[in-house]
Write a structure and sequence with these properties.
With 252 residues, this protein is an alpha/beta fold. The protein is 47% helix and 16% strand. The radius of gyration is 19 Å and the shape is globular.
Length: 252
């Protein structure tokens, strides 16, 4: 059975599905490597305009595969490739979360740009309970998403939060009653109809802005804003607006 499935549910949309439902989609090295490879390929594939990351079964991902951790040596862990393909992908990434998103699952969700959670979703970083420190960005993404004090409570106790609490803290974009995957695909299709260069530039500016001073971030935004005036898509958007028709964007 393929443990990572790549689907193309609509034009411009790629869907990555973690497919280990028998172990609550626990993330082993093979799965992490395949996901990393997939997102690296999307980054240079002009036919992919938005990506949805989800899973098979009742849970998004219940963390790392502890059986694998027990067998890995310190050298293995130190020399393993850091799987940051999701975070580095220039295309917008929407994570659709139902059930458990724990440990690496929570970190993978936070690597995305938009998080859609089902009402049954549970988020947490329980690594401390087994003597581990989060290794896919949890200690950095979580405080940036919800603030240092709520993040410290989650990280130091290992206790999870439900979807409603996650929404109140700003960890998720939206909580849905139905399928998180269906809503994520709906958003991805909407984004795929927008000018690709502009979408990718907005993502880059927002991500950059979280890592630098406000003045530096505003300067980058100003430059990006000015650069868009030189694009064909901007001219097409303005022309279509005045001609009262749907624009046809080409990504340049």
């Amino acid at each position: 059975m393929n443990e990572v499935l790549i689907e193309k549910p609509a034009d411009g949309i790629a869907l990555v599905r973690i497919n280990r439902p028998e172990v609550r989609n626990a993330l082993n090295a093979a799965v992490r490597a395949q996901i990393n490879e997939a997102f690296n390929s999307f980054d240079t594939d002009s036919s992919v305009l938005a990506v949805v990351l989800t899973s098979t079964g009742d849970h998004f991902a219940a963390g790392g595969d502890l059986r694998e951790f027990g067998a890995a040596s310190m050298v293995d862990r130190m020399t393993a490739e850091y799987t940051d393909g999701i975070a580095r992908c220039r295309k917008p990434v929407i994570t659709a979360v139902n059930g458990y998103a724990l440990g690496g699952g929570c970190e993978y969700a936070m690597n995305g740009d938009i998080i859609i959670a089902g009402r049954d979703a549970v988020f947490g970083q329980p690594e401390v309970k087994v003597g581990l420190v989060p290794g896919l960005g949890g200690t950095q993404y979580l405080p940036r998403a919800i603030g240092i004090y709520p993040a410290m409570l989650m990280l130091l106790t290992g206790d999870p939060i439900d979807a409603e609490r996650a929404a109140s803290l700003g960890l998720v974009s939206e909580v849905v009653d139905g399928s998180a995957e269906d809503r994520a695909l709906e958003i991805a299709k909407k984004i795929a109809k927008l000018p690709p260069l502009t979408v990718q530039t907005i993502k880059r500016v927002v991500r950059y802005g979280t890592q630098v001073s406000l003045n530096s971030a505003l300067e980058m935004e100003k430059m990006a804003h000015q650069q868009m005036f030189a694009t064909q898509d901007m001219r097409e958007g303005a022309t279509a607006f005045f001609e009262k028709r749907r624009p046809s964007f080409e990504g340049h």
